[in-house]
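Researcher: Batch entry, complex prediction.
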Amino acid sequence: MGQVMSLGEAVESLVHDGDVVAMEGFTHLIPFAAGHEIIRQGRRNLSLVRLTPDLVFDQMIGAGCADRLVFSWGGNPGVGSLHRFRDAVEHGWPGPLEIEEHSHAGLTARYVAGAAGLPFGILRGYSGTGLPAHTKNIATVACPFTGEEIAAVPALNPDVGIVHAQQADREGNVQMWGITGVQKEAILASSRSLVTVEEVVERIDLRPGGVIIPHWVVTAVAHAPGGSHPSYAAGYSVRDNAFYESWDAISRDRDLFGDWIRRHVTGAAR
Amino acid sequence: MNGASADMMAVAAARALRDGQSCFVGIGAPSTAANLARVTHAPNLVLIYESGCIGSKPKKLPLSIGDGELADTADAVVSVPEIFSYWLQAGRIDIGFLGAAQIDRFGNLNSTVIGPYDNPATRLPGAGGAPEIAASCKEVLIMIHQSRRTFVDKLDFRTSVGYGDGPGDRERFGLRGRGPTMVITDLGIMHPDPYTCELVLTHVHPGVEPADVLEATGWGLKIAGDVARTEPPTERELVALRRLQEGT
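Model: Structure tokens for the complex:
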């Protein structure tokens, strides 16, 4: 396990048409390089899962990789809309996109239950909101000890979990630090996992706040320096806020978007 | 919203925060106001971002809730499961600071969709952390630009609960925080009536009359008997605000 391979090989062997694919990274360490490789390899009918779809899912949705999205906040952070996501939901372009919508706390509870091998997760959430009426994966359960009613969501166990991290060693042990979001849970909840990394190191030195993912729960590791751009990898890069701002105009227009994908993703060599 | 009224909204919201409070901050206007409070009258305000950053002290305003500056200046950075369970849902946080696309008379918020859910006119980003912030923080402050598009008689979707359909609904829903205690806009300030839970205009900003606020509200907004006038921004507040905005 934790086999170090090229990103192309990893996506080819781990990600199949129709898979449920979770790609995490909460603003930080977003696995853009893996998303672009999935677009290049032309995967279709994916069920994509992410708390914050961000630009990476905007690109994958616009490129026609997905027919379903599980999410909790679908905006361009600090900028505005995700226009490819909106075009899919509002106009069915490039194809219809079924959505399963949660709050961050609710979708996080799905991951945590999935990682723990529990059938469902619980939270104090959703009560009184419009979400349970539209999301069938939100229910309530009575506490067996007090009778208190709380929200329940089913465990999430994706076919593939993909994250980006700062470092791996040659055994496939992984370390990430900074904002680590729900990445560990996404890896542990998934049947197969891919970690792209900034750097393959001889030996991992534990950092303050470092999260270690042992090689034996990771399926594949791929070296992808800069693979979280335009998000960032603390210690290696800074968030490219100017790109997030420029994406608004690129993504607003179907043709401009298509050009961008051809120039920067499908036309680019692996 | 012009520059002066945006400044007034940020300053009025910053003044609502007290030193030493913990504040769960959304990005955009709430983040601006909370940081303004921290660099002026509330140096010990604990800013909490849903990315897991606790006690962030950014020198410039972040674009996203996960900018490196927020993690680098934090007292602690925790995982997303931890921030929502141990910190937010446990009821540990004093103030939740929210914005939205629509608000109704009971302080309920919509950040999900304009038009029908299944056939939306405008698909908005959605819930994010807002429903649980609105449910679990001890109090909620809301910042929103005021117009008939945002202050609506009926929400297109209820993303986050204020007072539901009126008194008693928060208890019925099992929500443990008090709910919204103040709504700050570019025109004035509203507080919920303690008996009816309905928003009441209590302050107008400089140059604004109660009639202007009524005109910008999609329901018959209640107006307090003695509407106060917000103190204009001080030189110190404006200088601090500009310094935060530089380099964002």
